[in-house]
Amino acid sequence: MARPGRAGGRRMTKLLEVSGLRKVFPVRQSDGTAEELVAVDEVSFAIAPGGSMAIVGESGSGKSTVARIVAGLETATQGSIRICGDERPAGRQSRGKRKHFARLVQMVFQDPYSSLDPSQTVRSSIEEVLREHFDLRTAQRLARVTELLEQVGLDSRQGDARPRALSGGQRQRVAIARALAVEPRLLVLDEAVSALDVSVQAQVINVLADIRAALGIGFLFISHDLAVVRQLCDDCIVMFQGHVVDGGEIATILDAPQAEYTRGLIEAIPRPGWRPVRRGVAETA
Ligand SMILES: Nc1ncnc2c1ncn2[C@@H]1O[C@H](COP(=O)(O)OP(=O)(O)O)[C@@H](O)[C@H]1O
Ligand SMILES: [Mg+2]
Questions:
Q1: What is the mean pLDDT of the chain?
Q2: Structural domain includes residue 25
């Protein structure tokens, strides 16, 4: 896990510090009564500037809830989120505060289609983000759009296209370009490559790895796929039923998992010579 670094004898400010996070959702039962669902409990972790942290775990373990709270799309029931030392206030925020945190953190979702305006070209959707956050002259803004398109591997013709004309991988590149336009310090990616075909997924992973190397931007990368996580992150936490059950450097976690749950998760990754372990069935050679 990210260790507190030291710069000039002072403790370096962490990029992200999540402490004691808890999220309870009210869930209405079929008989009309309300129950509480604890989606996330006692979750704490930190990312150093430019660091890369993965959250892995099966569906329903609370990964997206943590991501959404970090990105400010959901508020925590308890606990705190500090980004570059600034605590994200709970509850409704002023426009100024929202913008301040949007400059620090951007999020990329599994399905970019829903966040892209079908009537807008790729170029104008990126321009829109630049207008919102920066005071640029038109020529500067257009040059920046070109730079962002290049960064995610889209050409000028694709820049003039509308989302419908693009493939899933290309649309995800647009979503990444719009997030990068803000020049965030932290990029939260929630199953951002999970819906893509394997070959397209590999290309988008390469784009993300290049971006990390070039910009020194921090990643909070959520995935249920440990093989993907390994390619992009240095550290990881493992979640199970809302709790962190394991954590550390990816190499250590995946090669020498301590928690029984993590061992089970790794067993489920298909690899050459892999055969699923069938519970209750005697192994035969
Ligand atoms: N808005 C919500 N209202 C009620 N329950 C929710 C809501 N969002 C998530 N949950 C529940 O919280 C738990 C964790 O969900 P989630 O964070 O999406 O997990 P993951 O991303 O690991 O699949 C699940 O049981 C899910 O059904
Ligand atoms: Mg999820």
A1: 90
A2: yes
CATH number where 188 lies = 3.40.50.300
Question: Pocket around ligand 1: residues whose beta carbon is below 6 Å from it?
Answer: 25, 27, 37, 39, 57, 59-65
Q: Within a domain: residue 260?
A: yes
- Statement: residue 20 has pLDDT above 90: yes
| Ligand 1 atom, smallest distance to 224 CA | 22
Percent over 90 (pLDDT), the chain? 74
Say how many Å lie between the first and final Cα of the chain, rounded: 39
The answer to whether residue 155 is domain-embedded is no
DSSP state of 89: P
The parent domain of residue 55 ranges over: 6-109+184-267
Sign of CA pseudo-dihedral 135, 129, 69, 266: negative
pLDDT at 283: 45
Overall number of domains in the chain = 1
Would you call 274 helix, strand, or coil by DSSP?
Answer: coil
pLDDT-based confidence at residue 273 (cuts at 50, 70, 90): low
Whether residue 261 lies inside any domain: the answer is: yes
| 70/75 Cα distance (integer angstroms) | 9
